[in-house]
Specification:
The protein is about 30% helix and about 30% strand. It is built from ten helices and 14 strands. The chain binds adenosine-5'-diphosphate (ADP) and magnesium ion. Magnesium ion (MG) binds next to helix 1.
Amino acid sequence: MVQNAIEIRGLQKTYRGGRGEPEKHALKGVDLSVPAGKIFGLLGPNGAGKSTMINIMAGLVTKTSGSVRIWGFDQDENPRQSRAAIGVMPQELNLDPFFTPHGALEVQAGLYGVPKAQRQSDAILEMVGLSDKADAYARTLSGGMRRRLLLGKALVHGPQVLVLDEPTAGVDIELRQMLWRNVRRLNEEQGTTIILTTHYLEEAEEMCDEIAIINQGELVAQDSTRNLLGHIDQKCMVIQPAGEVDALPEAEGLSVERRADGALAISYQANATSAEDVLNAVRASGISIQDVKTEQADLEDVFLELTRSR
Ligand code: ADP
Ligand code: MG
């Protein structure tokens, strides 16, 4: 057993700009270690470089410079072993329309050199809930079923590391639950290291032991989920004042912003300040409240906050 399932050092990726577009520096020298046996979340806003990083690990995108070790195997020195250790469920639904789910798993197993006798196609179909579609053509599968099949394909060679790139973006609750159940089971029963990207903070909070945050091609934070989400436990209360506002509410831990419509957006850390504290500060400043609502901290705000504070 290795200590780190993934070790990335100085990873850079520059996409060449096509047709008059400038080149894009998608990864600007990222160092990242993912401990073996964990469920690890890679978070970041759109365009941060998450898929680029994952696709480099998967061998689907060529890095510009830096090194990637998967399960102890350097991608350049031991390409076969490093590839065998990782399975990736990509963000894009790229399936060959002419294969059935069973056929697609068999072909994938063949590509990874899994001998016929050791293939688990039926068990995998069962696991992802596609047994009854085993012989249907991929083009007749719904979006959700295609996602299930992509998960199945990532598992054919029994990889030590399973990577899921935004597996739950835009999927229904049932599929989301199926995915998380399977992911948890693989992690607990087989010790599979899981790396996932997600847009949903609550999902990362619920699933992940440890989280890294990437923004504009740079790693801005990495910590246990508890430490990190404690740090970004930001809430926002929006107060519509009933009349003129002479003075803004003031209290330790509150940051108050006036919006164009006259509302006051008050941000605070929920673990340090209660909603009651916020309301008390508002009343103390002589403001009478016409309406009040709360907003979840926006993931974008959270990233900005983290980028600023480190
Ligand atoms: P994320 O998955 O975090 O949303 P991506 O890795 O997909 O981010 O993209 C990172 C940046 O690289 C973005 O600015 C994106 O537009 C750019 N990019 C991604 N793929 C390509 C490509 N094939 N060619 C050019 N630019 C790309
Ligand atoms: Mg992506």
